[in-house]
Amino acid sequence: MARFFVTGSSDGIGRETARQLIAAGHHVVLHARTVVRAGDARRALPKAAGVVVGDLASLSQTRDLARTAADAGPFDAVVHNAGVGGQLTDRTPTTDGLERIFQVNVVAPYLLTAIMPTPKRLVYLTSRLQSAGRAHLDDLQWEQRDWDGRQAYCDSKLYDLMLALAVARLWPHVITNGVDPGWIRTRMGGPGATDDLPEGADTQVWLASASEPAALATGRYLKHRVEQRPNPQALDVDLQSGLLAALDTITGVQLTS
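User: That's the sequence. What structure does it adopt?
Assistant: Structure tokens below.
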């Protein structure tokens, strides 16, 4: 039995990822944004090892979450699943003064990665929309450009993939990959999505738990267990380093090699 931590696992793809891991007999710690959602997660997955609570739109709560999750570990794999969509009509700052999509989708997984003890495997959820992302290291939070919620989401998914590939490069001892789960029928994906929920979790579960050689390679971008060609910006080491430097400045926590 292996041990796993899945962020954003009170519903949707994250909960399905946790469900599949639990069904395989593993020890899984869930994550929910609020106490109410934690209760929902416990009822949906009563065999989970526990639920930790923390709002990823808060730097202080994300730091506390990292420490609480670390106490529930150690983990064989961490799946960074949590995220928010981009259909916002206006730029929305958090209580930390950061743009909300960027903070939840990018800053939070960086901070959790940097603070938590290093697991054997890391999985970061991105999206096919990373291909439309544009790396603006001089305006990561849309302070200078006219707001475009959909583009901000695409950019955040590009940054997620850049983070995954940067971690794979800096930590070659950790199996680290980025995953496009597909367009999944969830609350975020909507009823018109093309793929079923179990399919949306399959690749993450495989990467986190399988022992076959194909699941043990690192530094890839995958969909349906098949390696994909990423946005070329995601492979740019200078852009990766620039993103990590910016996240270091924002959080005050350095991701060391």
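The chain has one domain: 3-251.
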